């Protein structure tokens, strides 16, 4: 297998992997970038301190320990302001990191992948030695890509009413990447449903409406059950 | 003489009182009694003209529900007499327009002027479910699912069943048909020694018949899939496409006369159904291409 094919398949798997792990990207970015790590640890320590003050205030009486209670309250208010500032700083840094990450993904993954698909799209990945496995039009499509379908009427006219004969069944890179993407998507759907989806129980139907005739509740016995 | 003059006096006082009630004078009397002389709140009661029978029920010691039902019946009748609450023995006729409000509340008339229409009757009138024809230009909400908790649960359960059907159809098609077919096509010589195929079925392993066999299988599998889907939709009374397609939901909010093509919603729905079938076929074709390549390489 030639290197553009291998690179294209690697890019495809990396793209799919990034899509599958998208929910963990935020925490990974926070760990990678040290500035945010320091701010996050500071935020966590202040939040823990605030929690201690709140617990202490809840355990003492405001009337009996007025001085201590108000002192704690003032500390809590001060910490709230600091936490708010830290949160804003963290979110600002995170948005900057996110922009950087997106640009990196665009430059290192998306653009090269697209370039390989466009430039090497007609390169044959493998050729099956089976003639007439598919109809001629389909063989033309899998060997030259989707663009060949659009140009088919023109080529048909130019060749004088004849379609190009192709030996075997060659599969081009563009079609193979599309086919592999579709298979991976279906596999993802299967795995998601089988392993990560909880079964849903049928909801209970609404109770039937009561009949217009009300039941006559009759007292049939006068006996009272004693414990 | 004194008795007659006393009776006359009482009669004159009664007439004066009646005139006072007719001109709204009972208000000042009530205010004096209740101590709200300077209050701006109105003391008019919607039960005004029909209190007599209801209060007589109450005074006789009947239950509240009986009095309420009786009051509802009374509200349907003509207004008879008004009673001074402070003096039950008095009788008088007051033409109180606020009794109309009480009548409407008592009869629970949805077309009443002062009652608030509820959401369902409003949507029902818009959708024509209640029999009222749609106004031109109003969106057709006949397929709009009310967002009650029961409907959402049924929709969730329905979507789960549809996904489960898709998973089963993919697994069965891929594992029990397409994989063995790919193996038989690529390893004809080896497979014939391992699994002896009768001559009548040898057309399956013939490469020239591959596409015919594949298409036939796809048609049968898609028919079975859609039969199962219809039975699920029938059991849950949910239209999968109508409830899950964003395109159809957006189209349902745009009036039909805005589009140059008539009946565009049904056309779009049909197009989406065909796309669904084509998408499943392409998915299986892609699987075959990948598997044939892997089987050939390895």
UniProtKB/TrEMBL annotation, chain A:
Keywords assigned: Coiled coil, Endoplasmic reticulum, ER-Golgi transport, Golgi apparatus, Membrane, Transmembrane, Transmembrane helix, Transport
Subcellular location: Endoplasmic reticulum membrane; Golgi apparatus membrane
Superkingdom classification of source: Eukaryota
Example GO molecular function: protein transmembrane transporter activity
Segments traversing the membrane: 6-22, 104-121, 133-154, 166-184
Lumenal side stretches: 1
One GO BP: establishment of protein localization to endoplasmic reticulum membrane
Bilayer topology term: Multi-pass membrane protein
Function as written in the Swiss-Prot or TrEMBL entry: Required for the post-translational delivery of tail-anchored (TA) proteins to the endoplasmic reticulum. Together with GET2, acts as a membrane receptor for soluble GET3, which recognizes and selectively binds the transmembrane domain of TA proteins in the cytosol. The GET complex cooperates with the HDEL receptor ERD2 to mediate the ATP-dependent retrieval of resident ER proteins that contain a C-terminal H-D-E-L retention signal from the Golgi to the ER.
Subunit (UniProt): Component of the Golgi to ER traffic (GET) complex, which is composed of GET1, GET2 and GET3. Within the complex, GET1 and GET2 form a heterotetramer which is stabilized by phosphatidylinositol binding and which binds to the GET3 homodimer.
Similarity-based family: Belongs to the WRB/GET1 family.
Name of this chain's protein: Golgi to ER traffic protein 1
Protein encoded by which gene: TBLA0C04150
Automatic annotation (TrEMBL), chain B:
GO terms, biological process: establishment of protein localization to endoplasmic reticulum membrane; mitophagy; retrograde vesicle-mediated transport, Golgi to endoplasmic reticulum; tail-anchored membrane protein insertion into ER membrane
Basic residues bias (residue ranges): 11-20
Keyword Transmembrane: yes
Compositionally biased spans, kind Basic and acidic residues: 1-10
Keywords: Endoplasmic reticulum, ER-Golgi transport, Golgi apparatus, Membrane, Transmembrane, Transmembrane helix, Transport
Membrane topology: Multi-pass membrane protein
Keyword Membrane (UniProt): yes
UniProt-annotated stretches for the region Disordered: 1-72
Location in the cell: Endoplasmic reticulum membrane; Golgi apparatus membrane
Ranges in the topological domain labelled Lumenal: 298
Residues passing through the membrane, by range: 167-186, 277-297
Cellular component terms (Gene Ontology): endoplasmic reticulum membrane; GET complex; Golgi membrane
Bias (Polar residues) ranges: 36-48, 57-70
Domain of life of the native organism: Eukaryota
Entries under InterPro entries matching the protein: GET2, Get2/sif1
A GO molecular function held by the record: membrane insertase activity
Cytoplasmic side: 1-164, 230-276
Family: Belongs to the GET2 family.
Protein role: Required for the post-translational delivery of tail-anchored (TA) proteins to the endoplasmic reticulum. Together with GET1, acts as a membrane receptor for soluble GET3, which recognizes and selectively binds the transmembrane domain of TA proteins in the cytosol. The GET complex cooperates with the HDEL receptor ERD2 to mediate the ATP-dependent retrieval of resident ER proteins that contain a C-terminal H-D-E-L retention signal from the Golgi to the ER.
Subunit structure: Component of the Golgi to ER traffic (GET) complex, which is composed of GET1, GET2 and GET3. Within the complex, GET1 and GET2 form a heterotetramer which is stabilized by phosphatidylinositol binding and which binds to the GET3 homodimer.
Name the UniProt record assigns to this protein: Golgi to ER traffic protein 2
Organism of this sequence: Henningerozyma blattae (strain ATCC 34711 / CBS 6284 / DSM 70876 / NBRC 10599 / NRRL Y-10934 / UCD 77-7) (Yeast)
Lineage: Eukaryota, Fungi, Dikarya, Ascomycota, Saccharomycotina
